[in-house]
Amino acid sequence: MNKVGNKTKGILLAIIGAIFWGGSGVCAQYIMQNKGASTGWLVSVRMLFAGILILFYLYFSQKNNLFTILKNKKDMLSTLIFSVFGVIFLQYAFFAAIQVSNAATATILQYLSPIFIVIYFIFESKKIPNVMSMISIALSLFGTALLVTKGDFGTLSISVLGLFWGLMAGFFGAFYIIQPRKIMAKYGTTTIIGWGMFFGGLLFQLYHPVWKDVPELDLLTFGLVCFIVVFGTILSYICLLKSTRYIPAQFSSLLTSFEPLSSALFSSLFLGVVILPIEIISMVIIIFSVFLLSRNSEM
């Protein structure tokens, strides 16, 4: 009974985390379209305040271990690399994709990150991928082509910039997972995410400080920004991380399919975005390709 309860808890945590992330993209789209927020301002606020809040939490929960990484130059350099390419570039690419397309499209393109991870390990191991991996990659490419052309393969239905930033979000999402593995094993995932967000937020102030191009901050906008920082960044990460205590990581990653699904649903309900049948089919194909990949990694 306890095993069943733990499995249910893990599934719920993974789904809630994925829904929070998908919802944050829709909140960002609303703020950019209706309140004049720029990609730069949203990225700046999200990283800096998420980093501060995570470090604040860690300071009281594990004060003795929080500052250890600052004493190791090699690990600090690795964390800074993670901050730039795994945090700044990922956040910017994701929000830029939303701004020039929509939250649903940006989220499903970012969901391709497991495919980029497989491609990376194929080159790293210098081995020919197995049949399941090849099928997964082929399906993901077909699903992506279907999504961005709406079935008319002679034309793009989204802007070239939208496709570019969406694919970049997927690429840097893969970097976000691959690059910090060693330092996360050494210092803990939460610590590295906290410092990564904080350093990324500080560095990004040089490009776009939080006081520059501030949008219309009424009560609704403030609430949506808080949702993006607290629920869409901190709690979504914590839920997905904790879910792996109760269910296999592969199963947890599969449940992140609720990210594009929730993003599409919220976009349709709250922003009036019309999701065409061909777009739903393309989402299903991409999610299925990641499912095959997940099953393949379990075997």
Automatic annotation (TrEMBL):
The chain crosses the membrane at residues 12-32, 38-60, 80-98, 104-123, 130-149, 155-178, 190-207, 219-240, 261-293. Keywords: Cell membrane, Membrane, Transmembrane, Transmembrane helix. InterPro entries: AA-Vitamin_Transporters, EamA_dom, EmrE-like. This is DMT family transporter. It is a multi-pass membrane protein. One of its GO terms (cellular component) is plasma membrane. It comes from Vagococcus carniphilus. Its main location: membrane. Residues 9-148, 161-294 form the EamA domain. It holds the Pfam family EamA. It is found in: Cell membrane. Belongs to the EamA transporter family.
